[in-house]
Design brief:
Blueprint: E1 27-30, H1 46-51, H2 53-59, E2 63-66, E3 70-71, E4 83-87, H3 94-106, E5 110-116, H4 125-131, E6 143-144, E7 164-167, E8 172-175, H5 190-205, E9 210-214, H6 237-240, H7 246-254, E10 263-268, H8 273-280, E11 287-290, H9 314-327, E12 332-333, H10 343-347, H11 354-367, E13 371-375, H12 396-408, H13 414-424, H14 461-466, H15 471-484, H16 486-490, E14 492-495, E15 503-510, E16 513-520, E17 526-527, E18 537-543, E19 556-557, E20 562-568
Parallel strand pairs: 1-2, 1-13, 2-5, 5-9, 9-10, 10-11, 12-13
Antiparallel strand pairs: 3-4, 6-8, 7-8, 14-15, 15-16, 16-20, 17-19, 18-20
Helix pairs in contact: 11-15
Length: 570
């Protein structure tokens, strides 16, 4: 019996459960450049991932989400694709990729690829032929006439600066919602949609198990490119996110998945909770990354507001999670990824209570309804780094935003933005993985492509594996528990203390099975003033503290205490 079919062959008495392997899976996201370097170049590679296939199996994950490994000039670390059907030389060869696929599948771990189809690299053959106006490629991208000194409208790039660049060779402006090296594809052109579908089919035929679809909410732009509202967090967002034909494009793309047993998750940074179900009832798009909960730490003008202090209220998080759990058919569960600060630095306490709070957020992640995603390093409690100058940064988004703040006079120097960068930068998630306390954290024998967090001597996989109370072992036990308890996968969610500013308590109920999760999301002790659940008996099945009482309403809870109970309501 494999880990993928264990639920389907067990506990089938709940006839109303709509089972699917991707619902019952725990996904592990890998950022290849920073995972493991097998050849001493200082850059993580595909063979390095294959070397760690046993590690992933031991952790117990079911699916690997592989960030882009396609041919790319690396203007945005692989999210600028030059060739969808090749492997970036730094990462290895197609044979190396096939070896990774086979190593994962041999261990019953599925593989999904990161598909970037809102934009390509400027070096992609499609863009090169389009700028030359070759027959059939003239409108593969969004081209606009205009004065070389005056962009077609006021839209802003998500990475900072104008969303338009002038191309001297073609004599027109082209649209790029991200870096100027990443021109947006023109999805109004059916030839573009057909070419993308061909890419999807090509990879499915190579035996992958699905896709994470990058920036999928930006495929449809408003007709005529009207000026955007400058009061939006990003000027133009109201016209280039969730455009008028997005559902049509997603439905058409979904046909490429017909006949394949796949998992698909769309990244929609601008989707509100009400919109998610509008896109996930199309066959082929199973679920969506909805980011509202990630914004609880943002300032009034968004996550890059220079005035934001990084403080947040638990009740705000509860309100959003309650709505996601109640209103989204099947949520994608995540609290970190390659575009976010480190999980424990963002939602926990990465100093005095790093291990306890890392375990608490892990408990939360893995006991909610939906498919959970673990980003590499979260399982050992990796933290944000400290960047003291602009020169230390790699992320074009962070650099672009800091430069824009400088140009606008919002800050006088990098020092004025340092606290903000050290809370928000995407580079925190891209520091290399800590495998051991050996030089370069065991990541490489060469010179690492990006500086390694100096705390690797204390936070690393090697020491975590030998410590039964480590963050890593807590993740492993949580994953095992989720695989064993259908109530934690399919059970109904009920928030028991929605107004409590310190305690988060909720139940997961499936038939006569009931699980209770109690979290003290603070660095102070907490007292349970009244029973959080009416029960005759509760049994502790997992906690991040020793000696926790079987009575969830008794006594006080330690800082960042997280306990899962099985409830006997008979």
């Amino acid at each position: 019996m494999t880990r993928h079919d264990s639920h389907a062959t067990r506990l089938n008495r709940e006839a109303n459960i709509d089972r699917a392997w991707w619902k019952e899976s725990v996904v592990y996201q890998i950022y290849p450049r920073s995972f493991n370097d097998s050849d001493g170049t200082g850059v993580g590679d595909i063979s390095g991932i294959t070397e760690k296939a046993g590690y992933l199996d031991e952790l117990g994950v079911d699916v690997v989400w592989l960030c882009p490994v396609y041919g790319s000039p690396n203007a945005d670390n692989g999210y600028d694709i030059r060739d969808y059907r090749s492997i970036m030389g730094e990462f290895g060869t197609m044979a190396d990729w096939e070896a990774l696929r086979d190593a994962l599948h041999e261990r019953d771990i599925r593989l999904i690829m990161d598909l970037v189809v809102n934009h390509t690299s400027k070096q992609h053959e499609w863009f090169q032929r389009s700028r030359r106006r070759e027959d059939g490629y003239e409108d593969y991208y969004h081209w606009q006439d205009g004065d070389p000194d005056e962009p077609p409208n006021n839209w802003q790039s998500i990475f900072g600066g104008p969303a338009w660049s002038y191309d001297e060779e073609r004599g027109q402006w082209y649209l790029h919602l991200f870096d100027p090296e990443q021109p947006d594809l023109n999805w109004r052109n059916p030839a573009v949609r057909d070419a993308v579908a061909d890419v999807v089919t090509w990879w499915l035929e190579k035996g992958i198990d699905g896709f994470r679809l990058d920036a999928i909410d930006h495929l449809s732009k408003a007709d005529g490119f009207p000026d955007g509202d400058p009061d939006e967090p990003i000027t133009g967002l109201d016209h280039f996110s969730h455009g008028p034909r997005l559902r049509e494009y997603l439905d058409e793309l979904a046909t490429a998945f017909e006949g394949y047993d796949t998992m698909t998750v769309g990244e929609m940074g601008g989707a509100d909770i009400e919109q998610v179900d509008d896109y996930t009832d199309a066959e082929g798009l199973n679920t969506v990354f909805q980011f509202e909960h990630m914004g609880v730490t943002a300032g009034p003008d968004g996550p890059w507001d220079p005035e934001q202090a990084g403080e947040w209220a638990l009740t705000d998080l509860k309100e959003i999670i309650d709505r996601q759990q109640d209103e989204i058919d099947w949520p994608a569960l995540f609290f970190g990824n390659h575009d976010q600060p480190r999980l424990v630095s963002h939602f926990g306490d990465d100093e005095a209570h790093r291990e306890e709070s890392a375990k608490l957020v892990a408990t939360f992640l893995l006991t909610l309804r939906g498919t959970p995603y673990i980003y590499q390093g979260e399982e050992i409690g990796m933290t944000n780094d400290e960047f003291s100058s602009l020169d230390e940064l790699d992320d074009p988004m962070t650099v672009g935003i800091v430069e824009e703040l400088l140009e606008a006079g919002a800050i006088d120097s990098y020092d004025d933005a340092a606290d903000l960068v050290n809370r928000r930068s995407r580079d925190h998630a891209r520091t290399p993985m800590h495998w051991s306390d050996e030089p370069n954290a065991g990541f490489t024998d060469g010179n690492p492509w990006f500086a390694i967090n100096e705390n690797y001597t204390d936070i690393n996989v090697e020491s975590s594996l030998t410590d039964p109370d480590s963050v890593w072992n807590h993740y492993r036990r949580l994953i095992d528990l989720r695989h064993d308890e259908d109530a934690l996968v399919y059970g109904e969610y009920e928030d028991l203390l929605p107004d409590d500013e310190q305690l988060y308590a909720y139940t997961r109920t499936l038939g006569d099975e009931r699980m209770l999760v109690v979290l003290n999301w603070s660095d102070d002790t907490a007292t349970v003033d009244s029973p959080v659940v009416d029960t005759n008996h509760a049994e502790v099945v997992l906690s991040n503290y020793d000696g926790v009482s079987d009575d969830p309403s008794a006594g006080s809870l330690e800082p960042y205490e997280a306990t899962v109970y099985r409830i006997d309501s008979a």
